[in-house]
Amino acid sequence: DLTPEFMLDALDAAGLRADGRMLQLNSFENRVLMLHLEDGGAAVAKFYRPGRWSDAQILEEHAFAAELAAAEVPVTAPWPLAGGSTLFHCQGQRLAVTPRQGGRGPELEDPEVLRWIGRLLARLHGVGRQ
Question: What range(s) does the Aminoglycoside phosphotransferase domain occupy (predicted)?
Answer without folding.
Answer: 27-127
